[in-house]
Design brief:
This protein has 89 residues and is of the alpha+beta class. Helices cover 28% and strands 28% of the residues. A 5-stranded mixed beta sheet has the order 3-2-1-4-5, with helices on one face. A hairpin with a 5-residue loop joins β4 and β5.
Length: 89
């Protein structure tokens, strides 16, 4: 005999929670189109915000990551990782 599964609200809540994407708290500073710099959340395909300068992008990423005790990964124009800044308290 096979066991019959009964869907309940509690089970549905548990399944929905486990299926939710994990927020890693990592923000990448990368080159964007032209001379712009982008801040991209880890696992995202779209930029969180685009900046005209690298310094302003780094400042924004640090402020954002600091709120959630995350990490900022700064990339060179070539795409290589230049620096990692952990903001865990």
């Amino acid at each position: 005999m096979s066991k019959k599964s009964i869907y309940t609200k509690k089970l549905g809540s548990r399944v929905a929670t486990s299926a939710r994407p994990v927020k890693s708290g990592k923000y990448h500073v990368i080159t964007g189109e032209g001379e712009n710099w982008s801040v991209v959340a880890d696992g995202s395909t779209r930029a969180t915000k685009v900046f005209p300068t690298r310094i302003s992008a780094i400042e924004f990423a640090k402020k954002t990551a600091d709120r959630i005790e995350g990490e900022v990964i700064i990339h060179k124009k070539t795409g290589e990782i230049e620096e990692r800044v952990s903001l865990v308290k």
